[in-house]
Amino acid sequence: MFTNRIFHEDKDIVEMGQKAWNRQGGDQNIEVFLIVKKLRHLLRSGGVPHKEVSWEKAAQHA
Prior knowledge:
- By secondary structure, this protein is mostly helical.
- The protein starts with a helix and ends with a helix.
- It has helices spanning 2-24, 34-46, 55-60.
- Helices cover 68% and strands 0% of the residues.
C-alpha cells in the first residue's frame, strides 16, 4: 500500500510537470540540484525526443 501511494504521487507529479511544459512551451524551472542537472543533461544528450518537439526547440528551453 505504501509503495502504491508513492508511485501514484510520482505519477501525479510527472503529469503536472508535463502539463506545465505544454502550457509554457518548455521548461521554465531553474534547477539548482546538481543530480537533477546531471540527469537533465544525460536525457538531453542521449534521450529520444518526443516526436512533436524538435531538437532546436528543446535546446532553446534547456
